[in-house]
Amino acid sequence: MSVTVTRTKIRVPRRRDDLLSRARLNAVLDDVLDYPFTLISAPAGYGKTSLMIDMAHQAPFPTCWYSIDALDRDPARFLTYLINSVRLLFPDCGAGFLSLLEELPRNLINPDQLAATLVNDLYSAIQEHFVIFLDDYHLLDNNPFINSFISRLGQDMDDNVHLVLASRTLFSFPDLALLIGRKLVKGIDQRDLAFRADEIQAYLESKLDQPVTAEESQALEFSTEGWITGLLLFAYRGPGQLPDQAKAFKVTGANIADYFQSQVFDKQTPLMRELLVKAALVAEFNADICQQIFGEPEGITWPEFISQLLEHNLFVELVEDEGTWIHFHHLFRDFLLGQLERDETEHRKTLFTELLNWQISLRDWENAFETARKMGDPQTMAEIIQQASSPLFHAGRIQLLADWLDILPEEGYTHVPVLLITKGI
Questions:
Q1: Greatest distance between any 2 Cα atoms in the chain
Q2: Strands 316-318 and 326-328: what pairing?
Q3: Are 326 and 306 in contact (CB under 8 A)?
């Protein structure tokens, strides 16, 4: 089972000049040697790789690196790269493990046997503490063999071996709950990785040469929710002199929508793309709400869809820790709604109609009017105003009603002439 190893995949990547070392996050990782597992899970563009690169370059202990790609779903390839990432620093380690890989046919490889062999090789050859960084673990697509191997390896390896794994999706190792219960796992998520106002200010000033005030950095933190890619793309679109990388972004026309399109949306199945757009129509949603509005989708249930959103970190956050209500990161929701705006087929009208009917059933007049307005349907807008007139009058919201009447196109008054009287009043 010979596998040709590309050495660039097992070398720590170069630390870029524009990488900001954040003392807060480095402090979070100060105790990495206290855990067999450190699991970093966050959506695309939150700086997982940058954090690991920064740590690897500053660590006072040996660090091994493995950049995973989609081809590494093959267990033999994955295991070959893993041991060679260690052998790059410790060339005397892993002979028994490599021999076992060569001797066994693929369909007879046992993950527990392989893990035990690697544990013994590591124990015999390496006495000092060291860390193995595994980047882009999500590209393995939850391979059950590799997950079982990593789980067993982490439980049995000696105290001097430590694994740091980064993934866009949640980890699903066998016995993960047991590992957490035994305090063998340290977790880092997007809330930890999100840039705070002071870090945004430091980054823009020291790396992009863009002076900003404390108030401006706080506004950027609010608008991007600390998402570093969103922050950069906002910065690249801003005025003033930009460094070469920023100019390249402007020349290529790259922006947040481009990033979401190529790195997130296009990578989903057609069914997932359709359901993402549907869910984005609702500011906050759960499975029951989606079912009420859009009915049952074919090929997947709404609870399964939401589970996939959470599992794959598709820019969603829980509205409350104990609940099932979630919402999209507002930048991602804007992108998804933009997809719908460009849809000129009857499908777009159908989705808006389903949403509108649900909003009317709840007497959610404000959202109903906004939906009708997005539909570009003056008749529907007029009918919403007519139904909402009495409730809004009694609630003392006459100014809102007046604003709607000002917005309503003339065609709407043609369909519902009584609104001319309402406007006069």
A1: 90
A2: antiparallel
A3: yes
**Is the Cβ–Cβ distance between 249 and 236 less than 8 Å?**
yes
Closest CA to 18 of 188, 209, 167: 209
For 203, the token pair is 């980054």
Distance CA 389, CA 277 (A): 31
**How would residue 309 be classed by pLDDT, with cut points 50, 70 and 90?**
very high
Q: What is the pLDDT of residues 215-236, one digit of tens each?
A: 989 988 888 888 888 777 766 5
**Per-residue DSSP letters for 257-298?**
HHHHHHHTGGGS-HHHHHHHHHHHTSSSB-HHHHHHHH-PPS
Phi, psi (degrees; rounded to nearest 5) at 316 = -120, 155
The per-residue pLDDT for 105 is 58
Residue 409 token pair: 């196109």
Task: Give the bridge partners for 133, in sequence order.
Answer: 65, 164
Residue 79 CA from chain centroid, whole number: 27
pLDDT digits (tens, 9 = 90+) for 95-131: 999 888 877 655 556 899 899 999 999 999 999 999 9
Residue 285, phi then psi, degrees to nearest 5: -150, 165
pTM: 0.77
SS3 letters across 300-312: CCHHHHHHHHHHC
